[in-house]
């Protein structure tokens, strides 16, 4: 995208749409919002952009308010294939809304995969899947790991292929919330972040740019080796505790967006996944200790 | 319901399951849910797939599983426990009582 230049980027967004490739998906993005164009230009600078007219999996449009509202209380509206599935948000939340909408497109449409609400990272060909509810420290841990030698496959959506159980990468900016923004900034001062946006439904949010390497290797699948359910606790030592396969199955099912929709195929996909990996609960309080544990997993299973 | 219903596997259930280390997960074909069960419950469901039976017949299986002696007629406590389990499985749409 960087080679397009800012003017061409804005023209495509205002006109026929920007065909943005993220992992296996192409999204046609249309938007007249200059601030969104600027954020996309920075956070997606390394991503492939397809020619105008190329087929897209998702067609999205983010637009501003019209009339008096545009002046008094400007908002951003999201449209998917002409529909408006979400309430508009304050205009300053355009980029977070874009990211949330992209997640929604995949989690609600991409049923050729088992889609798990989980971060996933890779090193030496082996992937660690980190499923967890909000507030567990999943994205903070993911951001730390990808700044210490692990490759980002996704911080939010793990795409498990139904035919062979491998993970397809979907590297996009890492979403950070509230206190974790300052923690990750301090931990990875060289990383690039969006300006924090306050007062969203998730509190204050900022996004960390995915590394150029993870974007360049977005078509390089990985074999799952570990499922780690993280839980951050202040001051807690980094501790792994095994989780039985059947219980890991139940917890993965709870964290998968389309498990029920896939029916028996989802059951078998999760069943195979837990049989092929080691499964753990992981509590941690210090990022460096957590990194050391992940690197020791890698050595143990070498 | 009859005083002593005959139970069978609910039509449509295939008992698709996986067991690991003394715990099983079962896919419910009718609801799409996944249940965490013990291997004995899977064996009981399998028995009902093979032959519809009343709780009294299954009580022997329950007693055997609990390591106690089997008796005929079934021990009342064992029978009550078995009936409770069958009611739970029926509530999950895994089994059903045959019409009287």
Textual characterization of the structure:
- The complex is a heterodimer of chains A (302) and B (100).
- Chain A is of the alpha+beta class and 302 residues long.
- Chain A folds into 2 domains: 2-109, no CATH class; 113-300, 3-Layer(aba) Sandwich (Rossmann fold).
- Chain A contains 11 helices and 17 strands.
- In chain A, the strands form 3 sheets. In chain A, strands 7, 8, 9, 10, 11, 15, 16 and 17 form an 8-stranded mixed beta sheet that branches. In chain A, strands 3-1-2-4-5-6 form a 6-stranded mixed beta sheet.
- In chain A, α1 packs across α2.
- By secondary structure, chain B is an alpha+beta fold.
- Chain B has one domain (6-97).
- Helix content of chain B is 40%, strand content 23%.
- Chain B has helices spanning 39-50, 55-66, 76-91, and strands spanning 6-9, 16-20, 23-27, 34-37, 53-54, 95-97.
- In chain B, strands 5-1-6 form a 3-stranded antiparallel beta sheet. A 3-stranded antiparallel beta sheet of chain B has the order 2-3-4.
- The longest helix of chain B has 16 residues, at 76-91.
- Chain B is globular and about 35 Å long.
- The chains are: A alpha+beta (302), B alpha+beta (100).
Q: Quick recap of the structure?
A:
Chain A is of the alpha+beta class and 302 residues long.
Features:
heterodimer; A: 302 residues; alpha+beta; Rossmann fold; 2 domains; eight-stranded mixed sheet; six-stranded mixed sheet; 11 helices; 17 strands; 35% helix; B: 100 residues; three-stranded antiparallel sheet; 6 strands; 23% strand
Oligomer: heterodimer
Q: Let me know the largest β-sheet of chain B.
A: 3 strands, antiparallel
What is the arithmetic mean of pLDDT of chain B?
Answer: 89
Largest Cβ-defined interface: A-B, 16 and 14 residues
| Number of DSSP-assigned strands of chain B | 6
Shape of chain A: globular
Unreliable stretches of chain B (pLDDT < 50, length at least 5) are none
Number of E-type strands of chain A: 17
Strand content of chain A: 25-35%
Top-tier CATH class of the largest domain in chain A: Alpha Beta
**Shape annotation of chain B:** globular
Q: N-to-C terminal Cα separation of chain A, in Å?
A: 37 Å
Number of domains of chain B: 1
**Percent of residues of chain B in helical segments?**
40-55%
